[in-house]
Design goal:
64 residues, extended, mainly alpha
C-alpha cells in the first residue's frame, strides 16, 4: 500500500504532466476554492447509471 505522500506525489506528477504547470496550478486552485467534494461530484456525474452499466460502457469503449 502506498503512503499518503506517495499518492500525493503521483497525483501531482500526473496533473502537471497532463495539464502543464499553469493549468495544473489553476486546477488545484479551483479545487481549493470550491471545497470540491469528489464523492458528491461522482454521484452527480452519472445520476442514472449503475456500477454495472458504467462497467459495461467502459468495456465497450476499451474494445473499440
Amino acid at each position: 500500500m502506498k503512503s499518503d505522500s506517495e499518492i500525493m506525489n503521483t497525483g501531482f506528477e500526473s496533473i502537471f504532466s497532463s495539464l502543464g504547470m499553469v493549468d495544473a496550478e489553476r486546477f488545484i486552485a479551483l479545487l481549493k476554492r470550491d471545497k470540491f467534494d469528489y464523492t458528491e461530484w461522482q454521484r452527480e456525474l452519472w445520476p442514472d447509471e449503475t456500477v454495472e452499466s458504467l462497467s459495461e460502457k467502459a468495456q465497450q469503449a476499451w474494445d473499440k
